[in-house]
Task: structure prediction
Amino acid sequence: MGLTSTVSKRLATLTLASLCAAIVGTLAASPAVAAAKGVVEVPASVVTDGLTVEQEMVRQAELSASLARALPPTASLKQVNVPVSAEEMAAIDQVDRSTSPLKIGFVKMVTPASELRGLSISTLRPGGRDAAVVGADGSVVWATVVNVEKGGAVRLHIENLNLPEGAELYVYSLAGEAFGPYTGKGIDGSGDFWTTALFGNEAIVQVRVSGPVEDATLRAVSLKITEVGVISETFTSPAPAPTASFCGNVACIVDASCYSQANSIKDAYAKMEWVAGAFLYTCTGGLLNDTNPSATNYFLTANHCLSKANTAKNVSFYWRFRTSTCNGACPSNSGWPYKTTGAGVAASNRSGDYTLLTLNTTPPAGTTRLGFTSAAVANTNGVALHRVSNPDFGPQVYNEQSVDTSAPTCQGWPRGERIYSRDTLGGTDGGSSGSPVVNASDLVVGQLSGGCGTNVNDPCDSVHNATVDGALAFYFNSVKPFINP
Result:
């Protein structure tokens, strides 16, 4: 029996049993109630703090413009050029789209590494060794430009970051994306991190030291750009207007913007992108509600996508990447949504194929935190389920499925630990893994592991393949201390 980490999904009818479960779920009078003996249910909530997507995009555009105005003269800027061969790009463009996590890019060494080891007053004079300028307020600005041939998006590996008080690092593009400030020794104090992706083939690295500044402060500034993560244009450029398929997806996959059933959950989902070893990968996950008074923001995805703290540290979350209208134009690079980067690992295990992350940055205001239930559904035939996901690093898609207790199981994925179902509407593909699946009451019951069947290379074959989700009921006691202490 074939096995893969991706699936295809299709249409689910609402059974009488699942309808009753939905009604029971709406009767919760407190944040967490026992819907049945030993069962915990927590309803959804909405993020109210932080910026909206629109406000964040305006903030970034204004920041990018402000940084550009302070940029040293173009003629004096150091240019770091990273060549990319046609063979390197083709290896990514031709990857099997049914694999998960899905490869969407690769890592290139910067040879030699671009390094800043202190500034000095002499640097600021004509003929100095670095491109730096002094502002009217006495501040000092240094910058360099990284160019990647044929890149669709660029991430930078920063090492040895050491910024004294008053110094800030930004990474931005002239197209209007800007991230930072990074201060001190970076995100976790190690001086080692990956910046958030900039779309296009250019990244400007800029350090600003508030003035008036002393030479000793300038000498303390250091950083090294050692690697570049390159996302292929195949995954960052919008597909042609949908014809026979949605945004270049396989035929069974459907646009989430076309289905009202997705409206109550789609703001919870984010596509993920991260660096691991020599490649960049993508999966999907969703923001999860909790009853923990000290909690930040929990995010559920699959263990087979990522599970290590060092990987989670550089994962980026792309919120609400979808079409603006049903089967409308595929989103372009200029419309990439609110992105946040960095997370910690609260809990993860291969059994149940789950990873519960804690986000370092609050998602955009208005984001949904999905509710959940610890009720088991894996052995209840016909339970209606649905989800949103981002296959192929593209816009949100929607699918429905129905629990099938007669579906053959795959070795290592026992029923009960996993939920087996048949797609009844839509589908998923590489990059959909980790997407939370919800019941008719929009309560999470698991997250996408993959497909099991005799034709798993065809994500549209729901006759010979079953969709497999890790079951929240199975691993609930492992995540309960975090989401329902």
